[in-house]
Structures are given as C-alpha cells and as structure tokens.
Amino acid sequence: MPSGYNKLFFVFFILTLLFSPRTIIYADTPVQEIYFQKGLDYYYKKMYPQAIEEFSKAINSSPYSPGAYFNRGLSYQRQNRLQEAELDYNRAIELEPDFVQAYLNRGLLRYEQGAFKEAISDYNQALFLSPGYTSAYYNRGIAYDYLGNLEEAITDYSRAINLNPSYAPAYDNRGMAYIKSGFTDEALLDFNESLKLNPSDSLAYAGKARVYLLKGDINRAIADYHKAIELAPDNAGYYSGRAEAYRKSGKYVLSIADYSRASELKPGDGRIYCDRGNVYQAEGNFDAAIADYTLAVRANPGLADAYYNRGLAYFKKGDTDKAILDYDKALEANPDMAEAYTNRGIAYASGGDIAAAIFDYNQAIKLKPDDADIYFNRGLVYAGNGNYNQAISDFNRAIKTDSGCSLCFANRGIAYAAKEDFERAITDFDRALELDPELASVYYNRAVARYYLRDYEGARSDIDKAESLGYNVRSELAEELKAQR
Fold first, then answer.
1. Is 355 exposed, middle or buried (0-12, 13-18, 19+ CB in 10 A)?
2. Mean pLDDT, to the nearest integer, of 291-296?
3. Within 13 A of 175's CA, how many CA atoms are on the CB side?
4. pLDDT by residue (tens digit) across 57-86?
5. What b-and-e string marks burial along 208-225, b requiring 16 or more CB atoms within 10 Å of the CB?
C-alpha cells in the first residue's frame, strides 16, 4: 500500500529589483528637472507617495518623458501598486521602445504577478537590445524555472554565471534546477562553488543538504541543515528540510520538534502540518496525525495530500467510512491522484463493495498503467471474488513490473491452487520463499499443494517450518498428514 508520505521541498529564489542610472537623466525641461529631482530625493528616502506625487508633476510638465514614467512606475512597484506600475512601464516603452531597463523592470513586475510567460517576453526583448545583462538572464531563468522549463532555466543561469562568475545566487538557483532535473552531482558542485563565493550563504547549505538527503546520506544532510539554520534561524523551509531528514533516520521526536518550529514561523502553511502528521502516522499516533491533517486542510482546503493521508490514518484506525470520505475529497482536489483511487479501492474491498473497488483500481490503472501495487490489489479482489483467471492476469502484470514482489508470487500461487493447478502453485510458492524466506503462510499453502500432489513428506516439512515461524496450522491438515505416515 502506498505510504502517502510526501516530501516537502522548498526552493528559494532571489530576485533583484533593477535600478538604473538612467533614472537621473530624463529631465527634459528646467521645470521638470525640479520635480524630477524632488522625486528622486523622496525615492531614495523611501518616501514613495511623495516621490509619486513629484514624478506625476514632472509628467504633467512634460508628458513625453519616458524617465518620469519609469521612475514613477518604480515608486509604484515599491508600494506594491503593481497595476499602476505596469501602466507606467508600458508608457515608458511606448515613448522609448529601446528602453532596456523598462523591459527589465516590467519583466520583474510581471514575474511578481505570476505572469511568467509575459515576464520571459520582456526579458527576451531586453536581451535582444542589450545581450550583456546578467540579471536579465538570471531573472528569465527563474521564470523558466517556475514554468517547469528546467533545461531553459539551467541554460539562463549558466549564461548569467558566464557573464558574472562571482554571482553566487545564480549557482544556487542552477543547483536547485539541477536537483529537480535529477542531476544531483552537478547540483552539489554548484552549491560548493556558491559557498566559496559566499561562505554565509544559507541557501547553498540547504541545497547541499537536499542533495545528501536524495543520496541517502542522512547524517551529512542533517549537518548541512544545521549550518543553514544557524545562518538563517527564521527560515521555515530549513526546519522542514531537517525535519524530513530526522524522519528518514527514525528520529521522530526531533522531526516533530522541527516541523513544530516551522509551523510557528509559517502558521498558514498547510504542508508543514501535513508533513508533521506524516511523522505522527509513522509513529502510529493516528489521532495526532489526523489532528494535523485537519489543521492542514483548514489552512489549505485544496491540499489533496492532507486529505489522502488523513484517509490513510482513518483506515488504519479501522474507520473505513471516514477514510473513503477523505479519499473522495483528495480526488476532488486532485482528480489525477492514482494513489487515492487505489486506497479507496482497498477501503471499498475491505467493506465488501467489490464493484466499487474494481472501478477504483481501473481508474488508478488508467493514471498509472505500470504500477505493480495497483494490479496486485486488483488481483486480490478478483481472487477473493473467485475470479481466479483475472486475478492471475493481474498478478502476472504486477510481476512483470516488479519481479521482486514476493506477495505477488504467493498470491498467484494461491490462485493457481484454487484452480487445482498445484504444480504451478508450488512453483510460485517456491519463488515467493526465495524472495522472502520468512513468509510463514506460504509454507503452509505450499504444504496444502504438496498434500494434494501426495508429496506428504514435503507437506510435513512445510508444516513444521510454518509452525516454527509462528503460523497457526489447521488441525485437520496436521491430522491428515499424520495419517499418511
């Protein structure tokens, strides 16, 4: 059964707001220059409303000055008045189509609004006009990154590094993009290079920790998260990352403590509660897990993972009805969540609703046609319903995908035995025991198959082995074998 534990992975990007010396040269008339200079003075004093007022006066005195619109746009942007800022950048570009900094700042503004494609378009134009802007490549790389275009993002980060080899943030972001692309060795090189340039770069340490976590080197991951947290003690993501490392090493108390600290720093982040719930569930503390998943969905009602994991916890507590309701909600939030269909199918099957279980497994297979677990579980339902041919077909498919699935062989053997094909059953039981010699019930089932083939000695040997592993052997079979001595 899928565990439902979902990794929490924070990616931190640093965007640089672009400033230009051109903000001080666009005074077209002596009157405008007075307003213009006052606007700049207010801007540098961070008195943005007053700066906007003066730049507006400059525009009124000379309506065709791109610099005045640009600077007012910058002031609007500082106040997070993004729509007004964009209008001013638009006007600056209309007045001066080659205004590189206006494209750069509008690109940043569009990025801040989540309009990544439009931001990329602005960066393209800026780079067409002036190909040497490090920050343009860097910011365009970030926009590509958020769109999932990792190859383009890596290319742009690399261009930024080529233009400015001392620009540590570009190494950090390229390292994160490498991680998401599966190139962990390249990522580690980038984070190490970033730390050479900036030994106090907490993101680089967190990036290294993520790489070590993916490589299974938990102790080194924890050590690097320690360093990241020392440098940035209020970063919730670093605590969450270390919490995951502690969970993977079985240090649940420390993991819960770190998730708790992360939730204090970001109380509205449902994923943190969800991940802490996963630790409670791993401990077997299902009530605490359910409480955390409930906090998660209150903070983020569309968080499918939280509903799914709460469903798991309810199912493990034996509350099948509540489990099904949560799987329903998980699928409402994410209709492509194959695991939710699979586990809802398990819940339906446990309650005897075979038709609903089969339907859910079918849906799961459409989403994940190569998932051995789904075929295995559907095979169990078919076998339990007496449809042994269909069961065998599903176990075949599961074994084709996962040839090391001992339970797949064991259950296919049971299906063959139910069809009285005892020789094939024994072959499957043999293979299951090769993969897992501690499967007591398989020794018992092989004993039954051997009994029907009149291999009484072999059956007695299997019965003895099953009993030695703690299996409660049916007295009738033991008596029958005694009678055959």
1. exposed
2. 98
3. 28
4. 988 888 888 888 998 998 998 898 999 999
5. bbbbbbeeeebebbbbbb
- The sign of the CA dihedral 267, 271, 273, 279 is negative
Radius of gyration (Cα) for the chain, nearest Å?
A: 32
Return the closest-CA partner of residue 381 out of 399, 394, 368, 365: 394
Q: Helices (DSSP H) in 216-303: which residue ranges?
A: 218-231, 236-248, 252-265, 270-283, 286-299
- pTM, rounded to two decimals: 0.81
pLDDT for residue 14 is more than 80? no
CA neighbor of 68 nearest in space, from 27, 17, 13:
27
**pLDDT (tens digit per residue) in 410-427:** 999 999 999 999 999 999
Long-range contacts (CB closer than 8 Å, 24 or more residues apart) made by 455-460: 456/481, 456/484, 456/485
Ordered DSSP codes for 90-159: HHHHHH-TT-HHHHHHHHHHHHHTT-HHHHHHHHHHHHHH-TT-HHHHHHHHHHHHHHT-HHHHHHHHHH
Please state the φ and ψ torsions of residue 212, each to the nearest 5 degrees: -65, -35
Residue pointed to by tokens 């565990």: 3
Query: To which residue do tokens 């065709």 refer?
Result: 64
Express each pLDDT in 177-202 by its tens digit. 999 999 999 999 999 999 999 999 99
